[in-house]
Amino acid sequence: MPPDRPADSGTELARMERWMPEGPTPVSQSHGRHRVVVIDDEPENLELLSRILQPEYDCALFASGEAALAAIEAGRQVDLALVDQRMPGMSGIQFLALLKERSPQTMRLVLSAHTELGDLIDAVNRGEVYRYIVKPFKIDELRSILRQALERYELGQEHDRLLADLQRSNRELQENQAHLAKERSMREAMYRERIHSLARTVAGVAHALNTPLGVAKSACAVVRTAIKQVAADSVEPMAGEVREDLLDSCALLLRSLSRAEQVVQEFKGLAAFDMVADPIDCDLVELVQSSIHALGPALATAKIAVRVQTNGTQAFPWRGHPDSFEQIIEALIQNSIRHAYTEQGGGSLDLRLSAADHNGTKRYRIEIEDYGRGVPAEVRPRIFEPFVTSQRDRGATGLGLAVIHNVVTNMLGGTIRCESHEGKGTMFTVEIPALVPGQLPSGPTG
Ligand SMILES: Nc1ncnc2c1ncn2[C@@H]1O[C@H](COP(=O)(O)OP(=O)(O)O)[C@@H](O)[C@H]1O
Ligand SMILES: [Mg+2]
Question: What does pLDDT average to over the chain?
């Protein structure tokens, strides 16, 4: 395209301005030619600059800074502005200062005579001018300076693009995380509700069985006494043998009833939310030590060493229910003894206590980690449900963790989770508030 004809020097708005008819185009043409604005009040200079630059760039020529600003304000994106310093109206530096406000990314270059360098250096220092070119200049030098400036411009653009990408990815990541956290807490709430409703059902059945079992046991004791009495009074020779048989049966009946009573007691543990006692001031480290002490013989037999780590903090004051806390610790350690290290080979257990702030309330975290065989894959997703056990054939009820879950969540207002890798070990993490909630979540009563 031939260069535009320079305007008559007296004309304020440049006639050679070619961009206006196209209207606003906000996108930089970094893949095509760069957009360059050239401003000089002297038509011959403008003509010369146009001849040098037009083949390489998409140039717009203006006779004044005012005219150029009007075009830029109409929405044109400009990659580089080259302006003469000495002009009758707005000076080159004044133009570039205004341009910086309107289009900070545009590279700003000024052409000036030797005598004007003082003003220029100030403008460079204020960041309004990227480079100045002293007149008279060599054509190759001018071209090379413009190329360098536009390379720099592209780097800046790329930087901005990358930054914007990064910010967008970050935002998306945060949104995803928030979404996942919400989903997870919904799943957890549903899981808790499922366990609680199962637990309530079982506890209800246990309550119903309790009385008839007690009655059956008493009746059995009465029968046994009666048999002994009848046999003692009888003179029949067969009576002795019949008596022994009957007494054996009574003993068997009593043992079975006692076992049933035990199981019913365990079932009733699932209704821990019914037991509301006043919280007591105690210390978690002491409770942990006393639980380990109580399990001393079992740990020694299984050759399991327990390490307690308290993260440098010596005291973990807790206003809560000491029996319940010990029940939790003991059940979890017993599970490690029973399920993690079954091969008499011994092993170790880490028990870590720490404190943290959670939405402004102090919470304690207790981690119990063993390095044993891990929870079987089929048990893992339902580990806190009642009757889930991998050792039913050995008389296990699968109630231990269901009871613990209930105690932690209902009585202590906390959470419990299990992480396990087969062959590597298992870690239970219990988190409880330092102050047991005054209002215990009663759970729907059924
Ligand atoms: N520390 C552990 N290591 C491996 N498996 C475990 C551990 N703790 C619990 N389990 C698994 O979780 C199941 C459920 O535990 P629990 O509710 O205490 O019932 P139970 O001990 O009566 O089996 C266990 O049968 C076992 O499969
Ligand atoms: Mg158990």
Answer: 85
